[in-house]
Structures are given as C-alpha cells and as structure tokens.
Specification:
- With 688 residues, the protein is of the alpha/beta class.
- It folds into 4 domains: 282 residues, Aldolase class I (TIM Barrel), CATH 3.20.20.70; 108 residues, Cyclin A, domain 1, CATH 1.10.472; 50 residues, no CATH class; 68 residues, RNA polymerase II/Efflux pump adaptor protein, barrel-sandwich hybrid domain (OB fold (Dihydrolipoamide Acetyltransferase, E2P)).
- 34% of the residues lie in helices and 14% in strands.
- β5, α7 and β6 form a beta-alpha-beta unit.
- It is globular, with a radius of gyration of 32 Å.
- 40% of the residues are buried.
- The structure holds cobalt (II) ion (CO).
- Cobalt (II) ion binds next to loops.
C-alpha cells in the first residue's frame, strides 16, 4: 500500500548516526500553561518557571504555550502575580522559542464576552508584552467572535492560530452535528479568515486514533495551512491519536514534559521522541537533555505542587469521558458542586439530565465556558426543579446563551427553554442573530474611570476590566493599598519538608492525636501550680469552673439604704446568672432578688428588643442556595421588591445566578457585600 504520508524508516545504527528528518513533527510544549492548568489548578508560579527556562529554550520546540487560558484569572486572584509581568519575565529567559497563548475568543481570558474595545486592547497589549502565537477558539465554534481581533493580531505581525473545538455527541466522530464535513468546513472558514495555522482542539481527550487519522487526512486535503493537534490524555487515547495523526501527516502536536504529563494533561514528549527516532518524522530532540530538565523539575519544582495533584483515584485515565463524551474537568466540577450542596447522591440524575440540557441548549461543544454553563444548569435542574416544571432556576449565563450573546449554537436552542430563559431578560425577550459583541456597549472608558488613582497603565485597567472584583483587589495588593492574605504566598521547599516530616512521624505512630476540645478562655483569677509527677514536672493553671466568684463585696450588716452596694447586679436577670454557677462552696450572692438594692435596680435592658444580628432581622430570609461569592445586590435596604424580582447576584462555580425574592415586601437587611464569600444556607438578605 503506498501512502505519501506514511512514516518511513531507514535501517541504521541510531546510537551512532541520526540524520535530520525529511519532515520532522513540530512540537509545542504546554508545560507552563495547559500542563499545570490541567494538573495543578493553574497554580504554577513564574519563579518556578525560570530554573529550566533557558535549558528548555534549547530543545527545539516550535512554540511554548505560556499564557492565557486560566492563568490570567488564577495569577491575579490566587497567586498575587501580575499576569502581564509573567510574559515579560519569561521573555528574558526564553529568547528563541515563540510564545503561544490560549485566547478564548471574545471571552479573552475570562468567562463572558467582553466588548470590542476591551477585546482589541487586550490582544494589542498581549502582543506588545511578548505573545507571538494567538491560539484562538470560540466555545460555540462561531468564528464571528474572532472578527474584532484578527486584524489586531495581524497588525501586530503575530501568528493567528484558528482553533476548532472538537466535540462529540456520539461515542465516535459522526452523528447529526460533529461530522468530518463539519470540521472541514470550519477549517476552510478559518483559512478564509486568514488563519496562519489550524488547530483541532480536543480539550476533553475524546478524539479516537482512527478518527484523528481520518480527520487530519481530510483537513490536509482541504486546506493549505499547517494542521495542529491539541489533545488531552484524560481518556487515555491521546498518545495513540497522536501517532495516527502523525501517520496522516499532522504538522504540529502538543506535549508536556513528563512530570506535567498524563492524567487530565497531555502526552509526554519523551516517549514520542523515542517512537519517532530515525523516521522521516523524527523530532530531532535530544532525550538526554529532556531527562536533565526533568530531574530539576522533579527535585526542585514539583514537590511544591504535589499537594494539588488529584490523587483521589489510582487510575490515571478517566473512562467517564469515554462513557459520557464530556470533559473530565466538567465531571469533577459537577461532583464538587453536588458535594458542596450535600447532594452527591444525585450524580446519576445529573448524568442523565446532562445530554438533555445540552441538546436543549443547542448541542454546544463542551469547553470553557459552555461546559460550565451546561454543567451548572444541569445541576440546578436536578436540584431545584419541581414536578413538571423544568428550568426553575436559570443562570444568567444560560439566559445570555439563549439571547445569542455567546454566538450561534450548533443546532437551534429549544424554543420553549429559550422563551422561558428570556422572560424578563434585561436585554430583551427577542434573541439576536448578529455578531454577539455588536450589542455590547464599550467598556474600556468606564473601566479607566473606575480605576482612576489605582491603575497606572492600560495593563492594570485591563485586569480590572476583565475581573472587576478580584482585579481591583489585586491592584490594591500590587500598589500596597491592602495587605495580601497569607494564602496567596508561595509554598517553599522548606514548607514541603516540614510537612513530609510530619507525615513520616504520623506513619511511625509518633504523632498523638490532638484533642479537638476547645479550651475555655482563662479568667484573670487563674492560679498557677507546679505539679511534680515522678521526674516530670508540669506547670498547671487552675481556674474555677464557671469563672471566678462573681462577687466580692462588703456585706452590709443590715438594711442601710444609704449604703450603696459595691456590686451592682448584672443587667441580665439574676436567675440567669445563678444556674451558671456550679454547685459548690461559693459566697452568697450579694444581692438576693428580694434585696432592696436589686429591687431598685434599673429596668433590665433585656426587656427591650435585643439588637438582632443583621442576619436575624424580622422577615423572610433569602438563604444562599449554594456556596459562592456575592457579585452584587440589585436592591438596597429599604427598597421595595416584588416576589420573583432579582435581589442578589451570586457567583457559584464561575457562573452568575440571579436570586429572586422569595416574597414581596421591603428589603430589611442586606448581610454581605460584593466580593464576600458565602456558604450554602447563609442568609443573604431579609425581606419583610
Ligand atoms: Co487544553
């Protein structure tokens, strides 16, 4: 069988000679972005990227994925790092290999569509700071969402990599939507838009080896631009799919250094180097050099992140992806969300509801943010729907999706769901069909206005424009206006060592379990004793239970109204104090209830209504249906609200939920403010 793309090999002694390959596979390294995003919750710090940066620059990668995706969010929110500074810092160490970033279309590096002015400014600043390749995708594969910034990428002289999200509705490629023709047409669209390369973005690791082969063959035949395959290892197929894609003539593939590879991350580079050694597609990489880099990563870097690795399962592959055609990260989010709501037993209902919700919402690909949108709505349906009424609690993002704010879905949204979602929707009840950002008002000037006196340049303004709440908080840390909390500080190897010692002690049985009993506060009457037991000596503090004797006074010898008692009874009624005192010798109370002084005591304060803590204002409480962060209150104390009207916007699992008033009335109390974290059941406000 003759095949012009077949991987060919000439027999020779490879330990002595290694001729340059005819058509080497180009490789992008994902270690510094998707690698730690997939395995270590995107918590990689810039300082930990530097030790091997120069060594890796010598490997010969086509590009390195270093920025974008979730990094922008986690850096400013959890690491107290300026996201822009990372690009500039890494550029000082990595001079040969181009930088690639993941750009979520008009969502940029956030979770909603931003206005055109923000999108243009963001891409321009990313290019100016040092990004070379813009891997761009849209969660709906609606490429109108690239229109604003493709000219900006081009004008900056940078590489526009158009991506197509790989999605399935069936176990394998095909079905009513995601066929080979679908992908070929999308690739042609991207080429027509000026894409410099085309990426198949298999974010969930769902591409099967023979589908990868067929798809790459078809794409190579249909378009001129290089084809790039991005596949996650999650389901265990990615290495096989890589090899089949290479056989089909794929130009570029994505890998990680082995300590950052596998599980929900990507195939490792080292086995691929060996697999292709001596073939016409040999990468040309030096495996010994890679091993030297790995050694540093293993010893000096990874111990700081090990605790973030999800080691709840022994298996490194997630066959649920094969069973549900759903990203592994999305499934674990669903499980976490259910666990936080004490409803983990409903996971099977969630699995059953998920394909239904996805179909009703237009059979969208499942990738950030659509995976969260579909996932959270599914959980909401399972938890809050009653009887025959479905979609009882619709998230703000589902409303946006139904309005057309994310773009055009693969198939039309279920009209009934759409109608219900758009009832009373603030932008209008009629969905739009134009390019989504056309209905968005410019946002940049407002962001500049709102960061006056805080932001010093456009990069700062953009942090705020993308993430108003956490971005502002970060800028306050950055400029010393607020002390960053301890949890944003880096973990050191010293911390890791201490923890390791503790674990070893525990394993050796040398750690005594600490009693969880909380010590009562010491009173000022505590007396210290030295206690000697054999050769041991302890210093023991003794405090009478119930506190010190409450009364020290001079007992008047008779009723002498002119003698004021030295001790006035507490405002709380005397009987309340009495039971607190344990049986045992203690002085008589100074003032018995019948004593004249007590009788004349001022009216006890207890008679007046005690000041209620804010959460206990009289009325109907609105409890948080799920844990999350307060985005905003739509009403303030004293406002009149009608039943069903939105009172609070609560962000949970990155989705905004508009919480309606349980009854009509006046808003009596507002218990939190924007940016506060709340637990499930916390009373957000009270209506009376
Ligand atoms: Co990825």
């Amino acid at each position: 069988m003759s095949d012009e793309n077949a991987v060919k090999m000439t027999p020779m002694n490879y330990s002595k000679e290694r001729p340059a390959a005819e058509n080497p596979v180009k490789v992008e390294d994902l270690t510094l972005r998707d690698g730690h995003q997939s395995l270590f919750a995107t918590r990689g710090r810039t300082e930990d990227m530097i030790p091997v940066a120069e060594m890796k620059d010598e490997v010969g990668y086509w590009a390195r994925d270093v920025w974008g995706g979730a990094t922008f969010d986690t850096m400013h929110r959890f690491l107290n790092e300026d996201p822009w500074e990372r690009i500039r810092t890494l550029k000082r160490y990595i001079k040969k290999t181009p930088f690639s970033m993941l750009l979520r279309g008009q969502n940029l590096v956030g979770y909603r569509n931003y206005a055109d002015d923000v999108a243009g400014a963001f891409v321009e600043r990313a290019a100016a700071n040092g990004m070379d390749i813009f891997r761009t995708f849209d969660a709906l594969n609606d490429f109108r969402n690239f229109e604003t910034f493709v000219p900006v990428i081009k004008a900056s002289g940078k590489h526009f990599q158009g991506s197509i999200c790989y999605s399935l509705t069936e176990p394998r490629m095909g079905g009513e939507v995601y066929t080979i023709d679908y992908y070929v047409n999308k690739a042609k669209d991207l080429e027509a838009m000026g894409a410099d390369s085309i990426c198949i973005k298999d974010m969930a690791g769902m591409i099967a080896p023979y589908d990868a082969y067929a798809l790459v063959k078809a794409l190579k035949a249909a378009v001129q631009k290089p084809i790039h395959l991005h596949s996650h290892f999650t389901s265990g197929m990615a290495q096989m799919s890589h090899l089949k894609a290479i056989e089909a003539g794929v130009d570029i593939i994505d890998t990680c250094m082995s300590p950052y590879a596998f599980r929900t991350s990507h195939p490792a580079i080292e086995p691929l180097v060996m697999a292709l050694l001596g073939t016409n597609r040999d990468t040309g990489f030096d495996i010994k050099h890679l091993a030297a880099i790995n050694e540093i990563l293993e010893k000096e870097i990874l111990p700081k992140y090990r605790h973030l690795l999800d080691d709840t399962k022994i298996s490194v592959i997630d066959i649920n992806v094969l069973l549900h055609q759903t990203p592994g990260g999305m499934l674990s989010n669903l499980v976490n969300q259910l666990r936080e709501m004490d409803a983990l037993e409903k996971i099977d209902q969630v699995y059953a509801e998920l394909p239904r919700v996805r179909r009703e919402l237009g059979q969208v690909p499942l990738v950030t943010p659509t995976s969260q949108i579909v996932g959270i709505q599914t959980v909401n349906n399972v938890l809050f729907d009653e009887g025959n009424e479905r979609y009882k609690m619709i998230t703000a993002q589902v409303k946006d999706l139904c309005y057309g704010l994310y773009g055009k879905t693969a198939v039309p949204i279920d009209p009934e769901v759409q109608k219900k979602a758009l009832k009373g929707y603030e932008r209008g009840e009629e969905p739009i069909t134009c390019r989504p950002a056309e209905v968005l008002k410019p946002e940049l000037e407002k962001a500049k206005e709102e960061t006056k006196g805080l932001a010093i340049d456009l990069d700062d303004v953009l942090i705020y424009a993308l993430y108003p709440i956490t971005g502002k908080k970060f800028l306050r840390w950055k400029y010393g206006k607020e002390q960053p909390p301890a949890e944003v500080k880096p973990r050191t190897l010293g911390d890791v060592r201490k923890e390791k010692e503790l674990i070893q002690k525990a394993k050796a049985g040398k750690l005594v379990e600490k009693k969880e009993k909380e010590a009562p506060p010491k009173s000022e009457n505590v007396r210290t004793f030295n206690v000697f037991v054999g050769d041991d000596y302890f210093e023991v503090g003794v405090d009478e239970i119930g506190g010190s004797p409450m009364i020290s006074y001079v007992q008047p010898s008779g009723p002498m109204p002119w003698t004021a008692p030295m001790y006035a009874p507490p405002a709380t009624p005397a009987p309340a104090a009495a039971p607190a005192a344990p049986a045992g010798p203690r002085p008589e109370p100074a003032v018995a209830p019948a004593a004249p002084a007590a009788a004349k005591a001022p009216e006890p304060a207890a008679k007046t209504e005690p000041a209620r803590p804010a959460g206990e204002a009289a009325g109907t409480p609105l409890p948080a249906p799920m844990p999350g962060m307060i985005v905003s209150y739509e009403k303030k104390v004293g406002d009149t609200v009608s039943q069903g009207e939105t009172v609070v916007i609560l962000e949970a699992m990155k989705m905004e939920n508009a919480l309606p008033a349980p009854i009509g009335g006046t808003l009596k109390a507002v218990n939190y403010s924007s940016g506060d974290t709340v637990a499930k059941g916390d009373v957000l406000c009270v209506i009376g």
